[in-house]
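go over whats below:
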Amino acid sequence: MGERFLIAYNAHDHGMMLELVHPKIKYMFVDGDEIYTEINHKAALADFLIDYFTNTPKAKSKLISSYLQGPFIHQVEQAIWQDKSGQNKTQCSLSVYEIRQQLIINIWYFKAFKCPFE
């Protein structure tokens, strides 16, 4: 499920991404003991993705590792994009996807870090 979501992300196919998520999807960022919920349902994710792909047309992600444990997929992803001045940027992050009824219901992204292979 996580890999299919990433493939759709790399294709900037927000329609396919939305097919893979639960209507009550939550998209959260974790930094230490703080959690920020950026997206709280499927319609909000749709709006976010359309805007994000329009403003970040070079956004891609590479899957570094992926493990399935019960209803959770935890993986390390490498984000690749260009900033507003055209400079290439990259960072890695641990992500955890929770699957319910064969759909992604929760996504936690942890604080980004420098990719170890750079």
The first strand starts at residue 21 and ends at 31. Residues 2-110 form a domain with the Nuclear Transport Factor 2; Chain: A, fold (CATH 3.10.450.50). The helical segments are 2-10, 14-19, 42-55.
